[in-house]
Write a structure and sequence with these properties.
Length: 148
Amino acid sequence: MASGGGSLVDLDGTFFIQLGLFLFMFIFLYAFLFRPMVRLIEARREATEGAMLKARDMSEEAARLSDDVDARILDIRTSAGAERDRMLEQARRQERDLMARAREESRVTVERARGELEKSGEQVRARLESEVDAMASAVAERILGRSI
């Protein structure tokens, strides 16, 4: 406790000098230390946020491109399936046409062969009919033992 009636702080000339030194140091430190540090921190934050925004944009772009690729793949698969079905139907149609032609050719060949067989049969029958009389006479002569 103070035993006198005086004040605890004396306001003399040193107070103003200390106040001036304090203000000078504050301005000096603000200008050369605090402001550059604040700028550095802001630049870092902006760079980090920018990189994060860029990464997010790139991620969204990648997802969009992935969806586009998936849609294109689906379209290609669909068109490939349609093309495969078209080619199968074309092959079936060609198979039916070939089978019909083969059946027709075999029918014509069989009819031609039947015609030739009938003609050969008729020729053989005609030859045999002409020889039947001679053979009958020969058989009769053998059986009878004399010439007819």
